[in-house]
Amino acid sequence: MANPVSKVSLTERELELPSGSLDSSAGAIVDFWGVVRALEDGREIDGIQYEAHRMMAEHQLQLIARQAAADFTLKLIVVRHRVGFVRVAEPSLFLRVAGRNRAEAFEASQWIVDELKRRVPIWKRPKFKIDNRPAEEGEQRRMHTGVTPRRGRRLQLRR
């Protein structure tokens, strides 16, 4: 496929729909919003504090976008992820995929989100309502996939 467009970024700002014209050769455009839920591990929260290794996260997002463009024959990929505090019911992730047909676009969207959660160094720490404090370092700080950082050790996969 010739020159797919991919735009990836981390931002502290609220997420908005991207402006600009859409590719007229795309038969399907899928927008996905990942929104902060009111419950985390069965407990009410005010929101989630997202942290990231910015350079590595953006690099991994670019690699994922390039691979998705090639594997799913996409025309456009936009991935924006919030960092900082995101309140309940606000979006933390925006993804737009434009492709030839809806099946490819939906499949690519799911694959991109799955890969983001698996590979991109973005950690979340919920702020629980009951005690109005963020989770303790070892209690809830983890990558989207359940990888918990350990002090003085490498990241280990939680089972």
Descriptive notes:
Helix 1 (54-72) runs antiparallel to helix 2 (102-119). 26% of the residues lie in helices and 40% in strands. The radius of gyration is 17 Å and the shape is elongated. It has a single domain (5-11, 27-131), classed as Molybdopterin biosynthesis MoaE subunit (Aldehyde Oxidoreductase, domain 3), CATH 3.90.1170.40. Strands 3, 4, 6, 8, 9 and 10 form a six-stranded antiparallel beta sheet that branches. A four-stranded mixed beta sheet has the order 1-5-7-2, covered by helices on one side. Strands 11-12 form a two-stranded antiparallel sheet. A hairpin with a 7-residue loop joins strand 11 (147-148) and strand 12. It is an alpha+beta fold. The model is unreliable at 147-159 (pLDDT under 50). The protein contains three helices and twelve strands. The chain has helices at residues 54-72, 102-119, 137-140, and strands at residues 5-11, 28-35, 39-40, 43-52, 74-82, 84-87, 91-99, 122-128, 133-134, 142-143, 147-148, 156-157.
